């Protein structure tokens, strides 16, 4: 139960802080011309959003803590906590849209675009300083999984007729699967699909646009390089820890025929710590490197790409050859839906989830 | 090594990009053998069309300042000191003449023109 509460706290803090984690030149998914970055109304929007989301999160959290002292059953508590988490996410999504529209209106009303001069800027040497992990780094997990699949088939005859595929929270087996040529490699196949989409993402990250601002060139370069470096490190950390977890799980249950090894749960905890802790670390690094616009002296601004974004969330740009772009709101990446590879990534990401639910 | 293009300028974008790259070579910030970003990544970073960047690169190639190979990056070949051919010197003279003539016709003194010349040349050492 403490575990589920900590996930809730994590989600709440993240949602509350999101407006302040984005680049200063985008507010609620709307591009802000650089001379207006310090506009007071924008700071008020961000503060209001954080206050509302933050107080909802605190109220929900208090409710859960009170429930902890009642005789509520664990399953019910977990379900309730998840429902509250989703309600909170829905509310913050609604608030996001509300402020997205308000920001857009403000920009239009005050005619910001008429008062600024758009320029295109870049730094020729920035790619030499880029430390995004090379895609080769993401091929090793794929090789390991392929080897595991081969090894499973080499030992096919020794695999028991039914093997464990699902465990409850206490670590007891509550789901079994019959042995077939497909079912024995189902887990490695899901892993392989995820690894391949990570691999494609690492290629996309490398070639993704590096967006500099016209008036804070060095600071924005710094932020971009930090986001690219630690973003790819985080992707690699999740990739490797997930590979270790699933390979050990598969090897122990299918090959060693040991259905409840004592190291399953600790391994799972390590995986959770890597994915949540890594995200905290990534966000902390990013927030430290966010650009500042302390000395604005011209009316220049880097070209905005608002017309290629729907609601500041979906990116469709035929002129941009990149597969991945940085999200306009929050941290991370999103795909360019005008690039056909993006559908392959989305398919590979959602296919295992659908398989797990329906099979 | 910043590139800064102004779409409101009367000079076309591809021309601005080519001019700024040439200036970087003249200043020695881009040296012989350096590679330029690929056309795609340059277009992506700047947020302009791929064809615009491609046009500038081809102009630089025609001028003999970069070497373009298919499937490889553009390599800077300008910047080193070498004897220019007679025809190349003539080309520079032909390009320079109308600009100087225009300045002279508009009333710029010969001394002023010389000092202007020196001032620009100083930037490139």
Write the layout of secondary structure elements.
The complex is a heterodimer of chains A (about 350) and B (about 120).
Chain A: H1 2-21, E1 26-27, E2 30-31, H2 40-68, H3 74-109, H4 112-115, E3 117-123, H5 139-154, E4 162-167, E5 173-178, H6 186-207, H7 217-255, H8 264-288, E6 300-302, E7 309-310, E8 314-315, E9 324-326, E10 333-335, H9 341-358
Parallel strand pairs in A: 3-6
Antiparallel strand pairs in A: 1-2, 4-5, 7-8, 9-10
Helix pairs in contact in A: 1-2, 1-3, 2-3, 5-6, 5-7, 6-7, 6-9, 7-8
Chain B: E1 2-5, H1 13-27, H2 39-46, H3 50-62, E2 66-67, E3 75-76, H4 86-105, H5 110-124
Helix pairs in contact in B: 1-3, 2-3
Could you characterize what this model shows?
The complex is a heterodimer of chains A (359) and B (125). Chain A is mainly alpha-helical and 359 residues long. Helix content of chain A is 58%, strand content 10%. In chain A, α5 (139-154) packs antiparallel against α6. Chain B has two domains: 13-76, Winged helix-like DNA-binding domain superfamily/Winged helix DNA-binding domain (Arc Repressor Mutant, subunit A, Orthogonal Bundle), CATH 1.10.10; 86-124, no CATH class. Chain B has five helices and three strands. Chain B has a two-stranded antiparallel sheet with strand order 2-3. In chain B, α2 (39-46) crosses α3 (50-62). Chain B starts with a strand and ends with a helix. Chain A binds chain B through residues 117-127, 207-212, 214, 217, 302-303, 305, 319-322, and chain B through 1-8, 13, 24, 30, 36-37, 40-50. β3 (117-123) of chain A pairs antiparallel with β1 (2-5) of chain B, so a sheet runs across the interface.
List its salient traits:
heterodimer, A: 359 residues, mainly alpha, two-stranded antiparallel sheet, two-stranded parallel ribbon, 58% helix, globular, B: 125 residues, Arc Repressor Mutant, subunit A, 2 domains, 57% helix
């Amino acid at each position: 139960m403490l575990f589920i509460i900590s996930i809730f706290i994590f989600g709440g803090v993240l949602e509350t802080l999101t407006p302040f984690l984005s680049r200063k030149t985008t507010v609620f998914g709307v591009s802000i011309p650089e001379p207006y970055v310090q506009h007071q109304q924008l700071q008020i929007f961000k503060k209001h959003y954080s206050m509302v989301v933050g107080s909802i999160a605190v109220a929900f959290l208090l409710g859960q803590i009170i429930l902890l002292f009642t005789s509520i059953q664990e399953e019910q508590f977990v379900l309730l906590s998840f429902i509250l988490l989703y309600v909170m996410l829905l509310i913050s999504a609604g608030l996001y849209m509300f402020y997205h529209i308000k920001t857009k209106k403000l920009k239009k009303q005050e005619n910001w675009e008429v008062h600024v001069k758009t320029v295109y800027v870049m730094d020729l040497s920035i790619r030499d300083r880029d430390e995004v992990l090379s895609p080769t780094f993401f091929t090793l997990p794929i090789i390991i999984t392929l080897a595991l699949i081969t090894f499973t088939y080499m030992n096919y005859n020794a695999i028991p007729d039914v093997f464990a595929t699902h465990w409850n929270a206490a670590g007891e087996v509550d789901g079994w699967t019959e042995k077939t040529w497909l079912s024995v490699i189902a887990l490695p196949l899901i892993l392989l699909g995820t690894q391949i989409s990570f691999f494609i993402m690492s290629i996309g990250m490398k070639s993704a646009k590096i967006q500099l601002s016209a008036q804070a060139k060095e600071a924005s370069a710094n932020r971009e390089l930090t986001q690219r470096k630690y973003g790819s490190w985080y992707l690699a950390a999740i990739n490797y820890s997930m590979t270790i977890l699933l390979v050990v799980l598969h090897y122990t249950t299918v090959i060693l025929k040991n259905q409840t090894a004592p190291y399953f749960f600790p391994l799972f905890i390590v995986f959770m710590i890597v994915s949540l802790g890594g995200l905290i670390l990534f966000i902390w690094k990013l927030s430290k490197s966010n650009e500042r616009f302390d000395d604005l002296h011209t009316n220049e601004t880097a070209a905005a790409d608002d017309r290629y974004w729907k609601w500041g969330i979906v990116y469709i740009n035929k002129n941009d050859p990149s597969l991945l772009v940085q999200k306009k709101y929050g941290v991370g990446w999103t795909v360019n839906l005008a690039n056909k590879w993006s559908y392959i990534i989305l398919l590979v990401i959602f296919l295992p989830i659908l398989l797990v639910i329906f099979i | 090594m910043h590139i800064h293009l102004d779409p409101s300028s009367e000079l076309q974008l591809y021309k601005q990009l080519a001019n700024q790259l040439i200036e970087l070579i003249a200043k020695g910030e881009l040296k012989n053998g350096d590679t330029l970003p690929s056309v795609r990544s340059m277009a992506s970073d700047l947020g302009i069309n791929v064809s615009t960047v491609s046009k500038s690169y081809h102009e630089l190639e025609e001028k003999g300042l970069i070497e373009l190979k298919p499937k490889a990056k553009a390599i800077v070949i300008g910047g080193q000191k070498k004897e220019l051919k007679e025809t190349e010197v003539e080309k520079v003279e032909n390009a320079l003449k109308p600009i100087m003539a225009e300045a002279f016709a508009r009333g710029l003194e010969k001394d002023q023109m010389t000092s202007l010349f020196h001032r620009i040349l100083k930037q490139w050492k």
